[in-house]
Write a structure and sequence with these properties.
This protein is an alpha/beta fold and 216 residues long. The chain has a single domain (4-176), classed as Ribonuclease E inhibitor RraA/RraA-like (Glucose Oxidase, domain 1). The protein is built from 7 helices and 11 strands. Strands 1, 2, 3, 4, 5, 6, 7, 10 and 11 form a 9-stranded mixed β-sheet that branches. Strand 10 and strand 11 (170-174) form a beta hairpin. It is elongated, with a radius of gyration of 19 Å. The mean pLDDT is 95.
């Protein structure tokens, strides 16, 4: 749903700049909780969100909506799973990673845990951002309820098609209606910061850089 050019431009801008641009353009925070972090590698990801909602159950049911989404979503998608910030069960593991790799997805963002880290690191090196690491299964505890619906991840609502930009600095959700203008502002922020850093180095003064550009 997004052009290759737009995705590549988002790859080049700083995640912090995207977070700042969302603050200004959308008027509210767009970055996820600090505890949702890369668990497999330091690879950055950019792609449209495909959302999965999970809820409690005592039934032993497979995460069918998630399995279907992994097979059916467009290549380059970011699978986002919401489970009410539950850290003690894994909503993702080795087999789901195999499916995501087979379907050329960009990565996964999990409001819960991930497991099978040794296998995923060894065999796939697939980027997974998760709230926790846990060996526990969802079977008998949670089930997938819906896919491609708005989901809550911590304090942030993620809609299907929102653009996810993530790396070691964190994860930012860019609302799909603001993707172009957030990108433009992010690039402008990056350019100004580069000029400001150059001035600070050349002048030997942090204050001079702040005085001219007004950014910290």
């Amino acid at each position: 749903m997004y052009s290759e050019d737009l995705i590549e431009r988002y790859r080049k801008v700083a995640t912090a700049s995207v977070a700042d641009a969302v603050d200004k353009i959308v008027g509210k925070r767009g970055y996820l909780d600090y505890s949702i972090k890369p668990r497999i590698n330091d690879k950055g990801i950019v792609g449209p969100a495909v959302t999965i909602l999970e809820g409690p159950t005592d039934e032993f049911l497979p995460p069918q909506h998630a399995l279907d989404a992994i097979d059916e979503a467009e290549a380059g998608s970011v699978i986002v799973i919401s489970i009410n910030a539950e850290p003690n069960v894994a909503v993702w593991g080795g087999l789901m990673t195999a499916g995501a790799v087979a379907n050329k997805h960009e990565g996964a963002v999990l409001d819960g845990g991930v497991r099978d880290l040794v296998e995923i690191k060894r065999d796939y090196d697939f980027p997974i951002y998760a709230r926790a690491v846990s060996p526990g299964t969802t079977l008998g505890r949670f089930k997938t309820i819906e896919s491609n619906v708005p989901v809550q991840v911590g304090e942030i609502m993620v809609h299907p098609g929102d653009l996810i930009k993530a790396d070691v600095d964190g994860i930012v959700v860019v609302p799909k209606d603001h993707v172009e203008e957030v990108l433009t502002m992010s690039e402008e922020i990056d350019e100004r910061e580069l000029e400001q850093a150059k001035l600070i180095i050349e002048s030997g003064s942090l204050r001079d850089g702040l005085a001219k550009y007004g950014r910290i």
